[in-house]
Amino acid sequence: MTSRRIISSEKTLLDKDDEDLQTSAVTGEQSGTGPAVPMDVILKLLAFTLAMVVIPIGSYFLTVNTIFGGNSTYAGALAAILANVVLVGYVIVAMNEDQSDQLEAERKKKLKNRQGKAE
35-39, 41-45, 51-55, 57-61 — which is least confidently predicted? Predict the structure, then answer.
């Protein structure tokens, strides 16, 4: 069995990685350590997660004895319907947010094109 020899003129993966770090420090580039997902998206997800837990369970226990007179089938059906309402609400909010991101990108592109023509 043979083993591979590293020739001194070859660069290993670690050497290449070190070079990338040095060149980015020289050119002043910032590393990509920022959050991958914006904070408003995380907050919306947390809010809808909380709503998905609290609204159906709360509606079940609030209506089982007060509105439906102990009939847990109707209270459970209402809880399922409200869970679906929360889910549909999340989908609508997510779709609107995605469209607003696309519209913002198009607006920036148009502004850049106008600035390029003005110069």
Answer: 35-39
**Distance in angstroms (rounded) separating the CA atoms of residues 94 and 55:** 20
Provide mean pLDDT across the span 99-112.
Answer: 81
What does the H/E/C string look like for the chain? CCCCCCCCCCCCHHHHHHHHHHHHHHHCCCCCCCCCCCHHHHHHHHHHHHHHHHHHHHHHHHHHHHCCCCCHHHHHHHHHHHHHHHHHHHHHHHHHHHHHHHHHHHHHHHHHHHHHHHC
Kindly report the average pLDDT of the chain as a whole number: 82
d(CA 57, CA 31): 44
pLDDT for the residue 113? 81
Give the other-Cβ count within 10 Å of 87's Cβ.
Answer: 13
Check residue 76 and give its pLDDT. Answer: 97
Q: Which amino acid is at 54?
A: V
